[in-house]
Each structure stands twice: as structure tokens, then as C-alpha cells.
Amino acid sequence: MRPLDWQSVLDRLDGAYAPNTLIAYRSDYSDFAVWCSGQGLEAFPTSTPALYAYLEHLPDKLKPTTIRRRIVAIGRLHILAGLPDPADDIGIVVALRRRYRRHGRFPIQAYGLTRKHLERLLDVCSPDLRGQRDRAMLLVGFEALCRRSELVRLCVEDLGQSLRGTPTIRICESKNGPFIRERYAGVSRHTMAAVERWLDASAITRGPMFRPVYKGTVIGRQVCSFTLVRVLKELAVRANLSSEVIEQISGHSLRVGAAQQLALNGYDTAQIMRAGGWKSVTSLSRYIEGAAVDLWGSDDDV
Questions:
Q1: With 121 labelled, which of 13, 114, 179, 278 sits at a CA distance of 20 to 30 A?
Q2: Domain residue spans in the chain?
Q3: Average pLDDT over residues 198-215
């Protein structure tokens, strides 16, 4: 039997892990394999001394979280091939801790686009086909508290109604490992009307809800997740948001901003967790930490 190489081990994982996880694993091991080739070392299987040398070689500009992910990916592929884990060594653990202490910092949260920001972006959406798509996409992303991967995967078939007759959207959550978990997000009639105007104008009746628009023509596939980031930044520039805000905007900004807005509106933690599908109070607390909730009131109240 031909010995396994790291590419064939990765091929075995298709369908068992999220596509983005496999993309990251492939990129990480490819970088390691190129380094090994330059050093005259075997990339797979590798040894603990080789992995330690690679770790020390990695530049300081890389985030400690990125370095840790690479080391974990290398070890994980060995385990899946039935080989000893070269990362299971105290020297590797100490080297990673040293990186964190030297360069580590708390992850920076995406800038939260709250309701006031959202309204400014909506005000500068163009009236054409692409503008109608952008308006509907931003409203749904905000009110349904979508992750960007969830937003771009929405289909017409996900639109529905609650038992009370109010508009809902089925969200297939993207962070539940191998299990697909659905939640149903309520949205306003205003948002649903924007979605219906976009669907009517684009003649979309089934399949992906949000699609690329090229020279006034709708392309028959879903938008990519990077489209959301580009749209948000383009609208933010048009709305004259500050350069500091624009720099911090990401595909997560709608979800972060909506969570902060719910906190500002007085909803409790359990309600916000249910609305956004959070399983942990700790995870939610990072989202709403930027919401300036005034617990004490003004000095006049003292």
C-alpha cells in the first residue's frame, strides 16, 4: 500500500469537517511542507524536533492564534493517519506559551453596526437592482443576527411565518461542528418587504436569496462571504463614517451591532442569546461589551 501523504489524509476529511476548516488545514500544512522542503526535511510524517524548529522559524508578525492553529493542524493530520502526534511534546507547549506571552493580545471584536449606523448605510443604498439587494441583505443580517456565512447561504425557501403570522427566516447555524442546527429568526415586516422587493426585481423564486449583480444582471449563484464585507465598507465610505470605523468593519459587524442594540434596548441576556443562537453567556458577553449601557444614570439622578 502506498504510504499516506498529508494531501491524501486531508482528502479523507471531505464532508467530515467544515469547508473553511479544511481550507485552513490545507493552507497551514502547505506552508509547513514548503518550509520542510527548503530544509531538506520530510513533511509527512514529521518529527517533534522538526516541528519545534518550524515553530521557532515563524515570524513574530504572525498572531499567536495563527501559529497555534498551524501546529494543531499538523498534529491533527498525524493523528488522523494513525501516527504519533509530533505536537504532543512539552517543548512545543512551552514554545507556544512563550509566543503568547511575548505577542499575545485579546482578540479584537468587529465594530458593531448598531441601528443608527445601519440607518446611515441604508440611506446611501442606490435605488437600482444592486442597491435593492444590499438593502435587503443588510436588514436581514441585522435583524436575524446572522453570521456572514449564514447570511450568504440563505435561500428563498427559508422565508416563512410564525404561528402568529409574523415574518420569520430559517437560519442554518454555521458553528455546530458536524451537526446542523436550525433556528428561526423573527424579522420586521419592513425588512420582509425589502426582501420581497429585491426578489421581485431580480425574478428570484427559489434557491439562493442573495446573488451577485453584474452590470444589472443577476448571476445564478449565492454571493460569497467577502461580498458582504465589501458592501459594508463601500456603503460606510458613502455614508461618511470615520476611517477608524471603516477599518474595523467586518462581516461580523451586523451581528455584533444587533446584539449591542438589543442590550441597549433593555433585553436581557437570555432573550439575546435566544435571538442570536448563542450557547454561552461568555460568548455573548464579548459581543455586547461595546454597548455603552448606562447603569447609573446621569449625575442629576444622584
A1: 278
A2: 6-103, 115-288
A3: 96
Q: Which CATH number fits domain 115-288: 1.10.443.10, 3.20.20.70, 1.10.3210.10, 1.10.10.10?
A: 1.10.443.10
- Give the pLDDT of residue 104: 58
Report the SS3 class of residue 205: coil
Any idea of the CA torsion for 267, 271, 272, 278, to the nearest 10 degrees? 160
Whole-number Å distance between alpha carbons of 260 and 289: 8
Diameter of the chain measured on Cα atoms: 80
Q: Are 236 and 246 in contact (CB under 8 A)?
A: yes
The closest alpha carbon to 117, from 271, 282, 253, 274, belongs to 253
What pTM does this model have? 0.71
Supply φ then ψ for residue 42, to 5 degrees. Answer: -80, 130
Which helix (H) or strand (E) is 218 found in, with range?
Answer: strand 217-218
DSSP string, 93-127: HHHHHHHHHHH--PPPPPPP--HHHHHHHHHT--S
| 226: enclosing H helix or E strand | helix 225-238
CA quadruple 72, 74, 78, 84: dihedral sign: negative
Q: Where are the beta strands (DSSP E) in 96-211?
A: 159-161, 167-172, 182-186
Instruction: Find residue 295's DSSP bridge partners.
Output: none
In the three-class reduction of DSSP (H, G, I as helix; E, B as strand; rest coil), residue 217 is classed as strand
Q: Is the pLDDT of residue 295 over 60?
A: no
State what percent of residues in the chain have pLDDT above 90.
60
* Spatial contact of 147 and 234, defined as CB atoms under 8 Å apart: no
CATH architecture entry for 6-103: Orthogonal Bundle (1.10)
Beta strands 217-218 and 213-214 are antiparallel
Amino acid identity, residue 195?
A: V
Cell of 288: 455586547
* C-alpha closest to that of 262 among 192, 210, 185: 185
